[in-house]
Design brief:
Keywords: FAD, Flavoprotein, Oxidoreductase. It catalyses: (R)-malate + A = oxaloacetate + AH2. The structure is a single chain. The protein is of the alpha/beta class. It has 2 domains: 182 residues, Uridine Diphospho-n-acetylenolpyruvylglucosamine Reductase, domain 3, CATH 3.30.465; 64 residues, 2-Layer Sandwich (Alpha-Beta Plaits). Strands 1-3-2 form a 3-stranded parallel sheet, with helices on one face. Strand 9 and strand 10 form a beta hairpin. The longest helix has 19 residues.
Length: 279
Amino acid sequence: MMCGWDAPGYRPPSRGCVLQPSTSKEVSAILRHCHDRRIAVVPQAGNTGLVGASIPVHDEVVLSVRKMDKHFKFDDHTGVLSCDAGHILEELENKLAKWNYMMPFDLGAKGSCLIGGNLATCAGGIRLLRYGSLHAHVLGLTVVCPDSKGSILELGSANTSNDCRKIPRIAKEKLGEILSSFEMMDRGTMGVLKAQSHEEARLMWRLRESATIALTMDGQGKRHDVSLPLDHFYRLTEEVQKRVGNVAKRVVTYGHMGDGNSHLNLTSTKEKAEELYQV
């Protein structure tokens, strides 16, 4: 397990300690121990980020949530999912499909990113425009504090599932025509989607989700994850192309148009990697 590397793969591995708790109580014990001894801790999920936020830079303890993947509970009446932080996004998607449900967001890294990391970074993805931000879907959290007690907090309503059961009834009573309008719009949208070729759609998303791997194979890479106004979404790429000139082998952008999130990527030959970094 390469806990010293994130998705770009350009950072050196740490020689520190990696701990893999499987329960909240174990996380609490770790944080309590580290707090008392003033030991720095870096929480880590699937290591699919592009900005190096989840990797140690000195001798920090890495607290990986990969083994926290046992708890899974889904209420198909309310659509409420309760699970551990270590579940892989794609595996959650596959499990929910049994009830004809899906996760409200989707990412190219879904095969390896973990739900805990998704929540920590409020991951956007390709369903953001339709379903909103990930944080808007969070009903409750179990949080372990890095204090002298390793306090475990339960945030959110204890009656979340019961409260959610009331939503369809309240919506029908209070929203009336507004709710009906949304239902009609949704059916129309689905009609358009069904007219498209499923094979074409599958190939299109495969191309999008393979972008990171393709750029990694293209040469030495420098990657950035930035948010921009939509009218300037591609302008950054053009400006960077002018700045780096022929030092870069390739300057490309892909990302999420819905939230203005741009993945700016620069590749170069091994010989020009340091020069590109300086530019």
